[in-house]
Write a structure and sequence with these properties.
Blueprint (H helix, E strand, L loop, with lengths): L5 E7 L3 E9 L5 E10 L3 E2 L2 E2 L2 H19 L5 E6 L5 E10 L9 H12 L7 E13 L2 E4 L9 E12 H13 L3 E7 H9 L2 H6 L1 E6 L4 E7 L2 E8 L3 H12 L3 H11 L12 E4 L8 E4 H26 L12 E4 L8 H9 L3 E3 L20 H21 L12 H5 L16 H19 L2
Parallel strand pairs: 1-6, 6-11, 12-17, 17-18
Antiparallel strand pairs: 1-2, 2-3, 4-5, 7-10, 8-9, 8-10, 12-13, 13-14, 15-16
Helix pairs in contact: 1-3, 2-12, 4-10, 6-7, 6-8, 8-9
């Protein structure tokens, strides 16, 4: 099978690194044909802090995925997360020299390029520029301005910004592990792609991906991404608290959390006790499940309140911006008992647990449809989108039709050669992302 038919997503997380290989089946759904995971040692809160260990973990995950699928992996799509990610809203406009001509993709490209010139804080770089709505000569709420007449074209943008050094470190790890980087995508966007339905994105929904080191948030309304945020703590801090609160080692704390943990302390009786073997020659420790739940509850409430603050910052309380579909929880933290009820209790919003089976083939095994793999599945979906665009680019038709709502498709296009002739269809976001990506690739090549 050609590498073009398959796609690989690499999720570099704080607790685990997952390499996932997938392909499209005849019905347009995605089949997972190989999966490999390794313990992630060199990543802290979504950011690489030990290059050597991260490279080893990536290689281990890749080898496992290759053995599982019997294929050789060449290039991967990687997710970016970490507390250095922030997003901002920005509006910009251009005055067109000739209002008698219809607006075409080059106008939108000029407008997007203007946004890329925004002055960022030192050491920051724009990762994604996502146009949300356009205005033509003051007429608002236009989703697709191409083909319209107008002198003044303006747009609201969702701009995602990250730290240059962190992004480059991820690139370095992937390259040193012997892989090509075909695109970089924001992790909350990848998870959203795997878990959310189009109806939810239209109605308004907040995707909350509770990972080990970070909690990622992506808010959609009217099918368009409205807000993204990365909150710098996740399941890891819960384990840390259990470890300190019960004076036990981390491995035992993690096991306790997964096996007996609950986010709702009310349901445990006072006499439910777990006995934990003491360290070498010491007495075993007895821990009541009620205390365990209290520790977990306190931490989870803190995480949810941070998330809810971000949802309020987006403006959920305004009637027009109301998130009708509520909250979707995914990631490893979503498997905590009673977390759904707790989120509903704190936020008053409808909540469901999100499984990444939105685009997966019906016969996928239960392991791959676990919330733990939401980001990895989303990255493979992105990679497949890129591959499906590849032939189109080679025939130089330039026909890359990306729906206004499907930001992730527009966000993570591969680094194709800049073509000489102007493309006929508007995909401003793609070309800009590519230019940034080529710059980024050159940097990696020169840094050898």
């Amino acid at each position: 099978m050609e590498q073009n038919d398959i796609a690989v997503g690499l999720d570099i997380g704080t607790t685990k690194i997952v390499a996932m290989i997938g392909r499209k089946n005849d019905y347009g759904k995605m089949e997972i044909i190989g999966i490999g995971k390794a313990k992630s040692l060199g990543v802290h809160r979504g950011v690489v802090n030990n290059i050597t260990q991260t490279i080893q973990s990536i290689q281990q995950a890749i080898q496992e995925a290759e053995a599982d699928s019997g294929m050789k992996i060449k290039d991967v799509v990687v997710g970016i997360a970490g507390q250095h990610i922030r997003s901002l809203q920005h509006s910009d406009y251009i005055t067109r020299p000739n209002p008698d001509e219809v607006i075409d993709s080059s106008d939108i490209e000029i407008l997007c390029n203007q946004v890329h010139k925004l002055v960022m804080l030192p050491g920051e770089e724009i990762i994604h520029v996502l146009p949300q709505e356009f205005k033509v000569d003051g007429q608002a709420e236009i989703k697709e301005p191409i083909g319209m007449y107008g002198g003044r074209l303006e747009a609201n943008f969702h701009v995602v910004v990250g730290q240059v050094s962190s992004i480059r470190n991820v690139g370095r790890c992937v390259k040193s592990a012997g892989l090509e980087l075909s695109a970089v995508t924001l992790e909350p966007l990848a998870s959203a792609n795997a878990v959310l339905s189009q109806e939810e994105k239209e109605a308004g929904v907040a995707l909350v991906d509770i990972g080990g080191g970070t909690t990622d948030l992506a808010i959609f309304k009217d099918g368009i991404i409205r807000h993204t945020a990365v909150i710098p703590f996740g399941g890891g801090v819960i384990t840390e608290d259990i470890k300190e609160g019960c004076s036990i080692i981390e491995k035992q704390a993690e096991l306790l959390k997964v096996k007996f943990g609950s986010a709702w302390p009310g349901e445990n009786k006072d006499n439910e006790i777990v006995s934990i073997p003491g360290l070498r020659g010491r007495e075993p420790k007895e821990i009541t499940l009620k205390n365990l739940s209290k520790i977990i509850h306190a931490r989870v409430v803190e995480i949810i309140e941070q998330v809810y603050l971000e949802i309020k910052n987006y403006g959920h309380e305004e009637q027009k911006k109301k998130l009708i579909a509520g909250i979707v929880l995914t990631g490893g933290g979503a498997q905590l008992k009673h977390i759904k009820q707790l989120v509903e209790y704190i936020t008053g919003m409808d909540t469901r647990i999100g499984y990444p089976n939105e685009h997966l083939a019906g016969d996928s095994d239960t392991e791959t449809t676990s919330p733990v793999f939401a980001t990895a599945v989303g990255l493979v979906l992105n990679s497949l989108e890129i591959n499906s665009k590849h032939p189109a680019a080679q025939e130089e038709t330039g026909q890359d039709e990306v729906a206004e709502g499907s930001t992730s498709a527009a966000v993570s296009q591969d680094d194709r050669e800049e073509r000489e002739e102007p493309t006929t269809v508007s995909q401003p976001r793609r070309t800009i992302f590519e230019k940034w990506f080529e710059k980024f690739k050159d940097f990696l090549d020169n840094a050898e």
